[in-house]
UniProtKB/TrEMBL annotation:
Catalyses which reaction(s): Release of an N-terminal amino acid, preferentially leucine, but not glutamic or aspartic acids; Release of an N-terminal amino acid, Xaa-|-Yaa-, in which Xaa is preferably Leu, but may be other amino acids including Pro although not Arg or Lys, and Yaa may be Pro. Amino acid amides and methyl esters are also readily hydrolyzed, but rates on arylamides are exceedingly low
Name of this chain's protein: Probable cytosol aminopeptidase
Species of the source: Amycolatopsis carbonis
Lineage summary: Bacteria, Bacillati, Actinomycetota, Actinomycetes, Pseudonocardiales
Organism superkingdom: Bacteria
Gene that this polypeptide is encoded by: pepA
Function: Presumably involved in the processing and regular turnover of intracellular proteins. Catalyzes the removal of unsubstituted N-terminal amino acids from various peptides.
Length: 500
C-alpha cells in the first residue's frame, strides 16, 4: 500500500522559508482574464512581489481544472519549484471539495519522483486536499520489473485559518484513514485473478482483520453446502477454486446502530456457460470491487472507531465454464429457501449477493448497504462515473445524496413495480433475469429486493462503471481500480453515527 507520509504545517513566510519541500503546490482559479490565485497561495505570491499570477499566465496557466504548470523559484523560495494546479471556475465565489480533491490529485500525479511537497490547497479544504493528494499519488507496480519514478513520498499541508489545531489533526487522521481504505480496495482490484481468487482473498481479509482487531469467519465450500448457500455454490461450481463466504466485523464497546455491508466478490467473471465476448473480458478481474470496498470499509470503521457495529458479508466465487458449471435452465435453492431459475449464467452477481443478504439480515441490522459491479446496464444508463443507487426510498435518497457530496457521484434510481413481473419464472419463485434488455439495472435491483428482510432500510449501489477506470487518469483517479464507493460508505457510516 503506497501512501505518502502526510503532516500539517503553517502557511507563513517563515514556514516557507525553512521548508524542506522540493515543491510548493498552489491552486489557481479560472478567471475572466487569466489565472486567479486561490486562498493559500498569498504567501508564495509575496515571494514573487505579488506578480505570481502574471508569471504563471506567461507560461500558459489559465486556472482550468486539473491544468498543471510548474515554475522554477530561482531562489525566491526555499523550495525549487512552484506547481500551480487549476481548480476551474468558482461557483458563486467558492470552490467545492471535489474541485480541491481533483486538483490535489492532478498535482500529486505530476509529482512522481518528488520527495516532498508543501501543499497550500488544504487552506481551501483540508480533508479534500489530503484525500486527493494521497489518492493521486497512488501507483500499482507490483507486477512491473521496472517500477519507474517513485510516487510522492511526503506532503506537508498548511492548516486552514478556521478551526483549531486539534480539529485539523482529527481531520488529517480521518482523511488519511479514508484514503488508506480506498487504496486497500484499489490494491485488491488491481491484483490479477491468478493471484486473487476466493481462498487468497479470504487470506488477505483474515490478515486485515487480525491487524485491525476485527472478528473474522470464513465458510468453505463444504460448510456452504451444509448450510444451503445455493447461489454462491452454483456460481462457483465451474471453477477448480471453490467459493467462500466471509464475515468480517467491527464491534465497539458501545454501538448505537448495526450496519450490515454486502459486496459482490466475483474474483473473475467469464460469464460462465453464457460466456462473455473476448473483448474487454480482462476487465472482469474487477468484478470483486464491491467485496474489496466493503472489506476496506470495515477496516476503516475500526481505524476511526465508529460507534457502530459494522459487519461485512462477502460472497466470493469465480464464474467459469466447465463440466461442473451451473447451466441456463438450472434451478437453485438459495440460502433461506427461495428458488431461482437460471436463465443466464452471466447474471451471477445477484445470486451470490442474495445469499449473503439473507445471511446478513439474520443479525438484525438497522441498515443494509450492498454494492456490486452488477450490470452493464448501469453504464448504459449513467455512464462510467455515476453509480446507480436503488433500495428503500428514504435510505436510497440519503445514500445517493451523500454519494454526490463525496464526489463519487451516485444517482437515485427507481424500482418500478411493472418490471417485477418480468422476473417471474415458469419453474421457480423467480428467474435471475428478465426476457428483455429494458431496464436491466432496475430489474437487477428488483431481484435483490426479493431477498431483503421486511422493513430493513436498504441501499444497493451499482458501481459497474465507476469501480474500474479503463480510460486515462483524471483528478485523483488512475487507471484500474478506483475504490468507489468506499468514501461514500465512510460518509454514510459517519452520518448514521451522528444522526441515527
Amino acid at each position: 500500500m503506497t501512501v505518502p507520509k502526510l503532516a500539517l504545517t503553517e502557511n507563513t513566510e517563515a514556514a516557507l522559508a525553512k521548508t524542506r519541500a522540493d515543491v510548493v503546490v498552489i491552486g489557481t482559479l479560472q478567471g475572466e482574464d487569466g489565472p486567479v490565485l486561490a486562498a493559500g497561495a498569498a504567501v508564495a505570491d509575496t515571494a514573487f512581489d505579488g506578480k505570481l499570477a502574471e508569471v504563471l499566465a506567461t507560461l500558459g496557466a489559465t486556472g482550468k481544472a486539473e491544468q498543471v504548470v510548474k515554475l522554477p523559484t530561482l531562489g525566491k523560495l526555499a523550495a525549487g519549484v512552484v506547481l500551480a494546479v487549476g481548480l476551474g471556475k468558482a461557483a458563486d465565489g467558492a470552490v467545492t471539495a471535489e474541485q480541491v480533491r481533483r486538483a490535489a490529485g492532478a498535482a500529486a500525479r505530476s509529482l512522481a519522483g518528488t520527495e516532498r511537497a508543501f501543499v497550500t490547497l488544504s487552506a481551501l479544504d483540508l480533508q479534500a486536499a489530503v484525500e486527493g493528494t494521497a489518492l493521486g499519488a497512488y501507483t500499482f507496480t507490483e507486477y512491473r520489473s521496472s517500477k519507474g519514478d517513485a510516487p510522492l513520498a511526503k506532503a506537508d499541508f498548511v492548516s486552514p485559518e478556521d478551526g483549531t489545531a486539534r480539529e485539523h489533526k482529527a481531520t488529517l487522521k480521518a482523511a488519511t484513514a479514508i484514503a488508506e481504505s480506498v487504496i486497500i480496495t484499489r490494491d485488491l482490484i488491481n491484483t490479477p485473478p491468478n493471484d486473487l481468487f476466493p481462498a487468497s482473498f479470504a487470506d488477505r481479509a483474515k490478515k486485515l482483520a487480525e491487524d485491525n482487531g476485527l472478528d473474522f469467519e470464513v465458510l468453505d465450500e463444504k460448510q456452504l453446502k451444509r448450510k444451503g448457500f445455493g447461489g454462491i455454490l452454483g456460481v462457483g461450481g465451474g471453477s477448480e477454486r471453490p467459493p467462500r463466504l466471509l464475515r468480517v466485523g467491527w464491534k465497539p464497546a458501545k454501538a448505537s446502530k448495526r450496519v450490515a455491508l454486502v459486496g459482490k466478490g466475483i474474483t473473475f467473471d467469464s460469464g460462465g456457460i453464457s460466456i462473455k465476448p473476448a473483448a474487454g473480458m480482462d476487465h472482469m478481474t474487477s468484478d470483486m470491487s464491491g467485496a474489496a470496498a466493503v472489506l476496506a470499509s470495515v477496516v476503516l470503521a475500526a481505524k476511526l472507531k465508529y460507534p457502530l457495529e459494522v459487519t461485512a458479508h462477502i460472497p466470493l466465487a469465480e464464474n467459469l465454464p466447465s463440466g461442473s458449471s451451473y447451466r441456463p435452465g438450472d434451478v437453485l435453492t438459495m440460502y433461506g429457501g427461495k428458488t431461482v431459475e437460471v436463465l443466464n449464467t452471466d447474471a451471477e452477481g445477484r445470486l451470490v449477493l442474495a445469499d449473503a443478504m439473507v445471511r446478513a439480515a439474520e443479525e438484525n441490522p438497522d441498515y443494509l448497504i450492498e454494492t456490486a459491479t452488477l450490470t452493464g446496464a448501469q453504464v448504459v444508463a449513467l455512464g462510467n462515473r455515476t453509480a446507480g443507487v436503488m433500495g428503500s426510498d428514504e435510505f436510497r435518497d440519503r445514500v445517493a445524496g451523500i454519494m454526490q457530496a463525496t464526489g463519487e457521484g451516485g444517482w437515485a434510481m427507481p424500482l418500478p413495480e411493472e418490471l417485477r413481473a418480468d422476473l417471474d419464472s415458469r419453474l421457480a419463485d423467480l428467474a435471475n433475469v428478465t426476457g428483455h434488455r429494458w431496464g436491466g439495472m432496475l430489474a437487477a435491483g428488483l431481484f435483490l429486493k426479493e431477498f431483503v428482510a421486511e422493513g430493513l432500510p436498504w441501499a444497493h449501489i451499482d458501481v459497474a462503471g465507476p469501480a474500474f477506470n479503463t480510460g486515462g487518469p483524471w483528478g485523483y483517479t488512475g487507471k484500474g481500480g478506483t475504490g468507489v464507493p468506499v468514501r461514500t460508505i465512510a460518509a454514510v457510516l459517519a452520518d448514521i453515527a451522528d444522526r441515527g
